[in-house]
Give the backbone structure.
Amino acid sequence: MAGLLEVRNLKTYFYTQDGVVKAVDDVSFNVSEGETIALVGESGCGKSVSALSVLRLIQEPPGKILAGEILFGGKDLLKLSRQEMQKVRGAEIAMIFQEPLTSLNPVLTIGRQLTETMELHLGMTEEQAKQEAIKLLESVGIPHAERRIRDYPHHFSGGMRQRVMIAMAISCAPKLIIADEPTTAVDVTVQAQLLELIRKFTAELNSSLIMITHNLGVVARYARRVYVMYAGKIVEHGTALDVFHHPAHPYTAGLLASVPRLDEPKKVRLASIAGQPPDLIAPPPGCAFTPRCIFAVPECSSGVYELVEISPGHFTTCWRAREGKIAWKTD
Amino acid sequence: MEATATQISARPHHTLWGDAYIRLRRNRLAIAGAVIIVLIIIGAVIIPYVSPYTFDKQDITAILEGPSREHWLGTDSLGRDVFTRLLYGARTSLAVGIFTQIIILLIGIPIGAVAGSLGGKTDNLLMRFVDVMYAFPDILLIILLRAILGGSIFNIFLAIGLVSWVNVARLIRGQVLSLKQRDFVTAARAMGGSSGYRIMRHLIPNSLGPIIVLVTFSIPRAIFAEAALSYIGIGVKPPTPSWGTMIRDGYDVIFAAPHLVIFPAIAIAILMLSFTFLGDGLRDALDPRLRK
Amino acid sequence: MTKYIARRILWLLLVIFVVAFITFLLMHLVPGGPWDREKQLAPQVVENLNKKYGLDQPFLVQFGKYIWGLLHGDLGVSYIYQDRGVTSIILEGLPKTATLGLVAFLLAIFIGIPFGMAAALRQNSLVDYSSVIFSTIFASIPAFVLGILLMIVFSVFLHVLPTGGWGGISYIIMPAFALAAIPAAYISRITRASMLEVIRQDYVRTARAKGLGERIVLIRHILRNALIPVLTITGPELATLISGSFIIESIFSIPGIGRLFVQGVFQRDYGLIMGSILFYAFAIAIVNLVVDILYAAVDPRIRYD
């Protein structure tokens, strides 16, 4: 299955005063053409850094992409020159960031921030790009686009700013869109609208989408396949159906259990995963989830854990799950 | 119970001042500045007892000489010993530095306190006045005041002080305002006059740190102002030595005896730099946000 | 935007008015009056002079007349040069002072900003450390001390530059550098600090994610934002520059307004002193106004005030 994007054994570390932070530690994932996948996990698990690594947006001190291959349409992005990479960014792979307030330049009109990409990648003239920008704004649901083109980011609400970011991302019809927690900083009421917007465009453009989120509800609705990350590694992946109905890793099960459900009585306490997120400078030995895992046994603290197939297309690193030694409530 | 007690005492307990002192000690530039200032002060104080020359002893047989064993930094056009005059000039500069601060504090603290505590229209008026003063270049106003007040060295202190109190007033006003907010709740429960007393009680300890920093930065500006005034000719009256006057006198013979201009100029630079470094160090040391 | 400008202009007029009033008031508090010279003048002569210059009229009348004159560009009379008005005296010195100020300002910007930028872009390098050291040192050495030291080195010791006068580049170099040092130091510091902050911002990352080249990211995204705080301090720095220029003109014998001012102070020519101070206040106020307007032009967030 030829993937559009194939990330193999990616390692991105950050060299800080307190030590080496292994933010992404041997991670592999892939996306096919037109497919939507999700990267899930709690804050700090490495999902954002993985995405930024794909676009090579890692700050070079203190970060560094040490190892791995990122194959996009056959080429290894890590081997491209700076100019070549700049041609990929925005044009073939586009990113939607989490914080629309700080991710937009406060002293440039949003029209300018839209047109600069199109002028660069699509060779449009100023006038053409301006017309196109107006159309884009309209299509993401911003009324009076002709006037709004000349407005500045601080004239827009959070939700509208995120629409602008979506417009920026799709402006050059990229083959792959990476959405890094696009709805976290936005009102709940607007979240659904934004997600629908993203889904609509990925379908129209037949783009692939990597959705990065810690919100499992979002994953269930939009993603075909899911990668669950913990402590810089992928601990489980498979189709959304498989992962949700038959989670094969205690962490995934924990995440699922902590999602509030409409069909449970309100009084039920939200289950949360006990313990603290792992220290990425000195992660626990063996399986990093061990200190917080209710199914852990002493053996879990040693050994190296690889992803192994537990059922067709469904992989997990948890050996206990594989050996069927764990049962948890699924439905 | 004992275990916890020992744990508490094992962790060193620093007051703001102790903590600041430790941090200051680590700042080498600030220490260098402080040392230089102390050395200059010592030199200025002991010079009358130590030097074989006075600042106005003329010696026509030794005019415009360069540095030598008899005259460490040479002589000027009247045969006076430069080294001695330099250190006497230091007395003038240091006196200006210190006394202007007293005037600044005497004017600035009350005005700031009044503005802060009275609030309302008085505050507004005072602050507008402060803004206008701020918009004006201080050195020019100092010159104007000096030209008007004329006369003694005390009037120099006055001229400089009358122009430079603005920052102190602003600081005190800010402190009073924030204290007023804190005391607002208690003041509502307290009886009439005691809230004012309480504000005063807290005002001094809270403002002491920032005032010290402000004063340390304000001293070099006062020293500069005096030197500038003397250079133009409206500063201290001869024969009182001042670095500014020495530069002015030396200017006429600058080609023949550049040392007459170099030494006072460098002295001004060094003294100002020392206070600036010390001020930087104090500001960092007293910054409550950097406390461990 | 126009409201913003209008308010700033009104503020300027108010400041000038207050300064004029204070200066005028102070002038009239001078003991002895403007005719105090070494030679005592006969009382009849003093009385005639006072009448001629309108000094015998009540204070507010005099002040009113003065303000009226100001509005017409008349800065009053010089009590020493009795045949010339202060305005014409100042206009004579204006070109030199303005040139000096302009050159110094340009130096400050074209040294300060690049240094600050280079320091920020190459953190912890030699450029960074030396930029911090130089800006700390030069921020604390007053212009007139620096000017004197420069003169000693280049005129007295090396004989490559003249000690004073006016007439060409060699006469401007030292005074301009001496004046520019402190502003350059502050500008460099702020540029560096500001750039370091802007570089870390999310929108810079967004710009790169869109595939924009480093040069465009630097100029359109980083600098546009980073230079805003620099613009903010430009006003006060220019004010310092303008007000410090008179000492430099004195040292380097530049026939500008500053030197006239100094002579006026020395000779107790109160008319000239007042006129000069008002001129300086006006120049500073105009400069601040221009900076404020530029600031609003560059930063859209503060425009609708």
